[in-house]
Structure formats: C-alpha cells, structure tokens
Write a structure and sequence with these properties.
The chain is α/β, with parallel strands linked by helices. It has 8 helices and 12 strands.
C-alpha cells in the first residue's frame, strides 16, 4: 500500500455526510483506523452518523486550520499520536474554505494540498480523503483537482484526469505591496535596525506585546537566512492589508526544497529551523523562490481589531 490522496467533491451537508461516513465505515469494515480533521460543525455531523468508536479519532484543528504551513507537521503529529498499533490508517481532512480570510491564505491552502503528495511520498502508507464543497467555488475546485491523484465519485475511486505529477505547482503572482510601504536594505550588523523598523510599523497599527515579540523572532530568523544564504543582504518591506501586517524579505538566494519549514526539525538536525519557527509564529507565510528571481518571503501577522 502507498500513500493515497483523494479528492471528494460534494454539494451540501447531506452529500458530505454520505460520502465521508461511507469512507469511514469501509475503513472500519477492513480493520483500519481513521483520523478525522474537519471543521467543528462537520465533526458534529459525523459523530451523529458514525457514533462513538475508539478506532475513529477526531482531532482539534482550530490551531492549524487557517495556518497552511503548519498542516503537514500537524498530520505527522496526529498520525503518531493516535495510531500506534500498526494497523492501516485512513484520514479525512477538510480546510474551512467557507471561512478563508484572504486570497493569500486560499493560495497557500491549495499549495498545501499539492505538497502533501511530496511530504508523504516516501513515508508510511496511508489514505487521505479531502472533501471539498463544489458550491463554494468552482474555479477553486479545478485548482484542487490538479493537486489530487485520485477522486471519489459515487462511492468509488477514480483517477483524477487533471492531476499531473510532473507539472510544477502553478503559483498565482504575489500581489503588489500596498502603498505606502516602508523599505530597508539590510546586511550583516543591521538586525537591530530591522527590528526597530518592524516595531515602528507594528506599533503604528496597534500591534505589540507577545505578538510583536513573535514577529520579531520570525523576522530575525528570515533576515539571518538572507544574510547567510541569500547573498549577504536583503530588502525588507512592510505594509498593512486586510487587517494584517505584512513583512516582506527579498534576497538573491534560492530555496530548493519546497517543504522547507513545513516539517518539524529533528532533534539532531543542523539548521533548517528558521522557516519552521516563522510558520509557528506568524499567521501566514508565503514563499516564492526560483534560481532566476531569488527568494521572496512574506510574513503575515493579524492586526488587533
């Protein structure tokens, strides 16, 4: 058995329950365990349909649902935490698409679906079903289909014709910085000035305390990577949009691993913790990196109401 990644298009709550409950029941009939990671209202529906069963584990997704960069690490933790007896595993994972807070978050959620294929290609075999309400956004469904090798129709698995394992993920272009924005060229020795620049921008928008300290730590990690691996210097830009403070870092380096920062570093691992920390500390992290254009990283932090 290999890792299987299957898209389940549905329309409305009744179809959601019918398709996911039959997937769970089929797993139970075959002696498999199930991990369910769906929004709270969908969890309630499935509990009412399936009933309580020790081999069906419902996990709390509130800490990661709107943080795409944390989801792969979360699935790794959920599988380790809930499945320990060696039996085959199935999962059901649905993001809260009806409550997505920005265009950037929607883009990163779709990218997460693509990266799941790479993250678990060489890992333990399991089967993940991804429900998607097609009444939400037909264009987004087409993009989701490109991220899934298989699709569920009428209770049966079929090959997804839109999926192409060899094609690179098609990013939508980053939006332009909102005007006005602040800009700072930084290099070795400029990290204190960089933190001061971020603090001034954050405090002007009412962001302070723990959230500002977390942003400072994430920004320091990203800027340090620019200095060490991105040509010795970088450019910081800061602005606000959609009730978020955005800190953008540009340099000439190239991040080759698309999973950088999305899997939890091991105890013995040397380096590679900066982007992981950024994903844990910020509300959203966008990364674009090519050998030709270099690297752009955007850190998003929600502003207080």
């Amino acid at each position: 058995m290999r890792y299987r990644h299957e898209l389940y298009p549905y329309s409305g709550k009744d179809e959601f329950v019918h398709g996911t409950a039959s997937f769970i029941q089929d797993a139970l009939d075959n002696g498999e365990a199930v991990v369910v990671a769906v929004p709270h209202d969908k969890t309630t529906l499935l509990r009412g349909e399936i009933g309580e069963d020790d081999t069906v584990r419902y996990v709390d997704t509130s800490a990661v649902a709107h943080h795409p960069g944390r989801l792969i690490g979360a699935w790794q933790d959920w599988l380790r935490e809930h499945i320990s007896d060696g039996r085959p595993v199935r999962g059901i994972g649905e993001s809260p698409w009806d409550k997505v807070r920005s265009r950037a978050e929607a883009q990163e959620l779709r990218y997460h679906e693509w990266l799941l294929n790479k993250a678990f290609a060489q890992g333990p075999a399991w089967w993940l079903l991804c429900p998607f309400d097609v009444t939400h956004d037909s264009t987004a469904f087409t993009q989701m289909a490109r991220c899934h090798p298989e699709m569920r129709k009428d209770g049966r698995t079929t090959q997804c014709e839109e999926y192409d394992a060899q094609a690179p993920y098609a990013f939508t272009p980053l939006t332009d910085p909102c005007d006005p924005y602040e800009e700072l060229l930084y290099s070795r020795g400029d990290l204190p000035a960089l933190r001061e620049k971020i603090a001034a921008c954050a405090e002007s928008h009412g962001l302070g305390g723990r959230r500002l300290r977390e942003l400072h730590l994430a920004a320091t990690e990203v800027a340090t990577n620019s200095i060490r691996h991105g040509g010795g210097q970088g450019v910081l830009r800061t602005w606000s949009e959609e009730r978020r403070l955005v800190c953008e870092f540009r340099d000439t380096g190239y991040i080759e691993d698309p999973l950088a920062g999305r899997t939890k570093p091991t105890v013995k691992q040397i380096g590679g913790r900066g982007l992981w920390l950024a994903h844990q500390l910020c509300d959203l992290v966008e990364i674009r990196s090519t050998p030709e254009a270099g690297t752009t990283i955007r850190l998003h932090t929600q502003l207080p109401e």
